[in-house]
Amino acid sequence: MFNLILFGPPGSGKGTQSENIIAAYGLQHLSTGNLLREEIGNATPLGLEAKRLMDQGQLVPDEVVIGMVRNFIEARSAAKGFLFDGFPRTTAQCVALDALLKENGNEINIVLALEVSEEELVKRLLGRGLTSGRSDDTNETIIRARIKEYHDKTTAVATYYAQFNKVVHVKGEGTVDSIYADLKQEIDHKI
Ligand code: AP5
To answer: Of 75, 80, 134, 180, whose Cβ has the fewest other Cβ atoms within 10 Å?
Structure first.
C-alpha cells in the first residue's frame, strides 16, 4: 500500500493536484473537506454542526473527523493506497492516522507540502468563491481565519512527519501542470 498526504494551506492546490495524482497512481482520494460538505448537503446533525464551524474558518473537532476517516478507510480495505487531502490537520489527527494505518501494517510513505504565499492563497480562494458556492470562500475575513487556523494548528502536521523524514516541500505556484510534474517526480522517487 502507498499512502500519501498532500499537505498545504487552504487554496494551495491540494484538491486540484489530487485529481491528477489519484488518476495516475490508482489511489483512493480521501478529502475530509469533501466528506464534511457531503454531510452538510445531506443536512445530517454532524453536517449542521460542521457547517457552523466551517463558516467561521475553524476546524471541526478531531474526534468527528477521525471517525469519518476510519469509516472511509475500513470500507476500502482492498485499496492500493490513499491520498489524504486536508487530513491530518492537527497532531492528534496525525497520531490517530498512524495508529489506524498500523493496524494493517501500513504507514504514511510521503508528505508532499505545497508552498504558496498568503496573498496568492487569498486571491485564488476569492476567485473560486465567485462560482464555487462554498460559503467559506466568499469573504476575505473567513479566508484569513482559515489561514490563521492553518498556522496555529496545522503546520504542526509537517513538524510531526518531519521527525520521520517524510516531508518533501514543493513550490505550489506556477502552472497546474508544472506543479504536478514536480509532485510526480517526488512520488516516483519514493514509490
Ligand atoms: P477543505 O475542504 O480541506 O478546504 P481547504 O484546506 O481550506 O482547502 P481548499 O479546498 O480551499 O484548497 P485546496 O488546497 O484544495 O486548493 P484547490 O485545489 O481547491 O476544508 C474546508 C473546511 O472543512 C476547513 O476550514 C475545516 O473547517 C473543515 N475541515 C476539513 N478537513 C478537516 C480536518 N481534517 N480537521 C478539521 N476540520 C476539517 O485550489 C483552490 C483554488 O485555486 C481553485 O480555484 C483552483 O482552481 C485554484 N488553483 C489551484 N492550483 C492553482 C495554480 N497552480 N495556479 C492558479 N490557481 C490554482
So the answer is: 75
